[in-house]
Amino acid sequence: MDPKSFRRSTSTHTPERFEQARLYGFERGWFAFSQVRFRAGSEPRDAPVAFLGVRSNSESYCNGTLIPLRRGDTAKLDRREKGYNRIDVTPLVFPSVDGRVFTYLIDCKEAKLPDAVVAHTYAEGVDRSAALYGDLFLSEFRKTTVPHAYPVRSGDYDFADVWQNEAAGRSEGIT
Fold first, then answer.
1. Could you write out the DSSP letters of every residue in 90-107?
2. Distance between CA atoms of residues 20 and 138, nearest Å
3. Cα separations (Å) of 139 from 5, 51, 63, 136?
4. Which of 50, 61, 73, 82 has a CB 3.0–4.6 Å from the CB of 24, allowing a cystine?
5. What are the sequence ranges of the domains in the chain?
C-alpha cells in the first residue's frame, strides 16, 4: 500500500496512491514471520518478527490496494516477499479490473510463533500507509486485519536474508 516502499523494490512508476480494492476469500493478519536483525541499540539484536500476511479463509475478505507492475518487477518482488507464494486472484477482487491481479499468500502452518515480536516501525508504517487512503479505508483495514498479541519492539531493522533485504530497499545496516 505504501508507494514509497514499493518504489524501493521496483522500477515501476507509482502514483502517490494506488487504487483501492477488496479481496474476497482471504484474511489478513500477523501470521507471516521473518528473521530480522535489529540495528544497534536494540535488544535482542536478532529476532523473528511477525509481519502482515494473507491466507485463505472462504468466510473473510480484506481491503487493500491494486499496484500496477512491469513484467521485470515480479522477480524482485518475489525476493522481497520471501516466504510468500504469488497467486492469481483476479476473479476474487472487487471492483474487477482489466488484466491479472496477484497477491502474496502465506502458507501458514504455524498460526503463532511464541518468541516473535512486531517491529514498531513496520506496524507504524502500515497504519500510516493505510491512512493515505482516507478514514474509511483505514477503519476497514483495521477491522479486516486479525490482531496480534506479540510484544512490540522499537528500533529499525534489516532482514537477515541479504537478498530479501536488498529487494526491500533496506541495504544499509547489514553486517
1. GGGEES--SS--EEEEE-
2. 11
3. 22, 19, 10, 5
4. 61
5. 3-167
Task: Please name the amino acid found at residue 54.
Answer: V
Strands (E), 4-162: 19-38, 46-66, 84-88, 93-94, 102-106, 118-119, 145-146, 152-153, 157-159
pLDDT tier at 14, thresholds 50, 70, 90:
low
Q: What is the structure's pLDDT at 175?
A: 38
Residue 101's closest CA among 111, 91, 112? 91
In this predicted structure, what is the pLDDT of residue 31?
Answer: 87
Q: How is residue 144 annotated by DSSP?
A: T
CATH of domain 3-167: 3.10.490.10
Taking the C-alpha atoms of residue 34 and residue 114, their distance in angstroms, rounded to an integer, is 13
pLDDT at 109: 57
> Hey, CA dihedral for 47, 53, 58, 60, is it positive or negative?
positive
Q: What is the pLDDT of residue 168?
A: 65
Mean pLDDT of 34-57: 82
Q: Which residue reads 482471504 in cell numbers? A: 26
